[in-house]
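Researcher: We're teaching a course module on how sequence relates to structure. For the next exercise, students receive a sequence and then see the predicted structure as tokens, so they can try to spot secondary structure elements on their own. Here is the exercise chain.
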Amino acid sequence: MIDILTASIGVGLAVSLLFSEMFGLAAGGMVVPGYIALHLNRPVDVTLTLIAALVTYLVVHALSTFMIIYGKRRTVMMIIIGYLVRGVMGMIPFYTSEPLFQISQRLSDAPAAFEVIGYVIPGLIAIWMDRQGVIETLAALITSSVVVRLVLTLVFGLELQQL
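Model: And here is the predicted structure for the students to work with:
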């Protein structure tokens, strides 16, 4: 049987390509919808990831006002800043007494800690926020992730719910 992560990335690649060809919008990088789709049952983690991407975009945008950042430099800078933002956000403690955790617990059987999804994902999303716009990227990412999650649910069913 195929691994759920592998299937998620594969379906995410196909959906990203379709979105790119049909609508001319990138969903925050080719592999991002697959990873986000696996975490849609953890809305706080998805939200933290999007916040980390937005912070990354804003930091690089601010840095570019007094530094020459373009092309490969800009791409690498987005990935590095995204990595650092994720690391800093990972040091912020989120405890079970917070109302945020209680809301998330009602939605799923989430563990006590919240976290940003991946280390590279925020940077990849930030790259596309910079290239095509924040709203366009978020709309394409959320829509494509839901489509990937739907396909995974149809294929894996209850096995997906246990993640």
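Model: If you want an answer key for the exercise: The chain has one domain: 4-161. Residues 4-161 form one domain.
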